[in-house]
Write a structure and sequence with these properties.
Length: 544
Amino acid sequence: NNTRAWWKEAVFYQVYPRSFMDSNGDGVGDLRGLIGRLGYLSELGIDAVWLSPVYDSPNDDNGYDIRDYRKIMSEFGIMEDFDELLSELHRRGMRLLMDLVVNHTSDEHEWFREAVRDPEGNYGDYYIFRDRPNNWTSYFGGSAWRYIEERKEYALHLFSEKQIDLNWENVSVREDISDMVRWWLKKGVDGFRLDVINYISKPKGLPDGSEIIGKLMGYTGVEKYFFGPKLNDYLRELRRDAFEPYGAFTVGETPGVGIEMMKLLTAERRKELDMAFSFDHLENPGHSRFDEYRYDLNCYKSFITEYMEKYSPYCQMSLFYENHDNPRMISKVDGDGKLRWILGKLLAVMQLTLKGTPFIFQGQEIGMVNKGFRSMEEFRDVESFGKFEEFRKVQGEEKAFRRILAGSRDNARIPMQWSKEPNGGFTEGIPWIGTGDIEVCNAEDQMGDKDSLWSFYRDLISIRKDHPALVYGDIEVTNKDKKDIFTYFRKDDSETLFIECNLSREAIRRVGPVPSGRRLASNYDESNEDLRPYEASVWITREE
Ligand code: ISL
Ligand code: CA
């Protein structure tokens, strides 16, 4: 199935607004800062921006705890700034995806305040209250239940104590959400990224989760709700009532679903989601985000190969390594930094030539890496503190700190490195979180250097646009069982491209096919007999 769609052709860029660009010196990124950098995104060749939440929020989880869905967070600006952002994006031919966080709201949302004030009133049943907790745990550590004194009941919160899970069983909840979505679509936004959307349907009676699975995953209860009984119904309803009338695009954040469930969620004729994010490739099997280990790219090869084969004829893959919830990929694969730029280019080659839609996370295009935080005081993320406490109790302070260092989401949330100026040009004030290695890694220097990682991303994005085979063409992976070698063809009626990658940091023998034709891009100057460390090249072997 190769029906054309703008979102299959587009290159997306995720903006984490708090850390992108500060326009007024308060140390916090904002909408005017982003508006000022749209030229940067155009130059890179970006087609669509996914903007992490900008709604009014007390920021317990940096905006993923929404207090008012129809208001802009005061630190980020006002609604006029948002309107200008949207029209400026459109004027430049780019689209905008908002982040839709509807599994939960802030405990400061009016619905929750009403639910607590008047349990018998209209909002009394908007959240999930119980007399006694079950054994589900929160993603940020501890029980998933918070005692609400006024109601003498517990409220479910899969995330922080201030992010209370909505009760999707209640039809008024669903209608209010639809209504709010339509309100944004009327403004002209082009679509949404749906936060933990596969968690919205909880099974009747909220049965305890398996302790065995809990131990394995680090979270108890997830198997009960990660693909709840009414998930598909709710998604269809929301699509029919809100997205479809506006032709809006949706990509679901769907942790843990696996290929078969992803198909159910995204197959075109089922009319649920357009696309989804699978996270299975972000850690090697047997490891969690908070383990200190070196990520083996062969796992990415097998993950993506399997998806290409089993999934992509019916559905469109999303291609990404990074977002605001994960450490930087370069750091995971090769922490010592010696091959940083070469490796960054290898990642770029795969992301822009495999079959699917690429999502680049801010800073990835200049090869930003994890920050060497020195103490817990330097972190800001609610999850990092929650997990630190959890680990400390069993493993001691030192080990707990090292695990947070490896897995903290703050690794991806340090300010965008624009230039060598103080704070990397991100702010004229004091940044809300420490900055990274701006001397060796910043956008300004890289934009002026045709061999930089930034220029490589720009070139590859434009190559992707010039060669429809990279978007709609078939993919054929060769050397499937050869460790460290990732080779594949992309072809359509008029052209064939060949991509050859060395996934290891050692030089290795080429196993064939020997590339021929014209080399369009590579992270090494001249072609060579052996494959050098992390070597990655794109060839065109047949053209009309
Ligand atoms: O399942 C997980 C544990 O590793 C996580 O992937 C989790 O589901 C995921 O982090 C959810 O993320 C999204 O929702 C959170 C928010 O904190 C994240 O920033 C957001 O991307 C709650 O809204
Ligand atoms: Ca600001």
